[in-house]
Amino acid sequence: MSTLIYSTIDYFNPATLPGAIVYALAFLVLAFLAGRLVHILVRRSIKRVSDPTGFSFVDQLLQVIIFIVMVILYAQLVPPLRALGTAMLASVSIASIVIGLAAQSTLSNLIAGFALLLYRPFRVGEQVQLMTPRGMMTATIQTLMLGYTFLRDDEDNQIIVPNSMMANIVIIRIHPKIN
Asked: What is the C-alpha to C-alpha distance for residues 100 and 83, in angstroms, rounded to an integer?
């Protein structure tokens, strides 16, 4: 019957099982704390803006990125997992290309949504004129999300426009007349 006895040094050596477990726990705690810090900072930022549309998305995206980076860093630190870490980096690169090609229209809507949130060519509540399949229409901006912009016309019809189109069409902002 053999017993495994580890010295204190083994707990700090990532090449040993106890060391790998200690580092796994440390990276997990660091990822959790970093994710929590990002969440708190995003929530504080939401309080300072009038349109918090993109903040919850950015919050979730940053938390996922933090955990992915921590897993890759952990795999690079532990010698038996180093090959796995390298393979994960290569896989992420290939997967990003495949996903990018497969979701071109969705990603273009997402990128255009970020651009609309950043540049603010129009705001929620403004009345605009734009070309639709029914011709030139006047509508009020209801909601600006990351993928789509929702408008409401004078006949109470909802118009849903992909953000990639909103970023590429001519929009006339109508300012109310002051008497």
From this structure: 26
What does each C-alpha distance from 61 to 12, 34, 38, 54, 58 come to in angstroms?
Answer: 32, 13, 10, 11, 5
Could you say which of 2.30.30.60, 3.20.140.10, 3.30.160.20, 3.40.50.450 is the CATH number of the domain covering 123-174? 2.30.30.60
What confidence tens digit (pLDDT) does each residue in 14-41 have? 888 888 899 999 999 999 999 999 999 9
Q: Which pLDDT tens digit goes with each residue over 71-119? A: 888 888 888 888 776 777 788 788 888 888 888 888 888 888 888 877 8
CA proximity to 50, closest of 108, 126, 101, 107: 126
Q: What is the pTM of this model?
A: 0.54
Cα 53–96–21 angle (5° rounding)? 90
For the chain, helix (H) and strand (E) counts, in that order, are 5, 5
Q: Let me know if 7 is exposed, middle or buried by CB neighbors in 10 A (0-12, 13-18, 19+).
A: exposed
DSSP string, 44-103: HHHHT-S--TTHHHHHHHHHHHHHHHHHHHHHHHSGGGHHHHHHHHHHHHHHHHHHHHHT
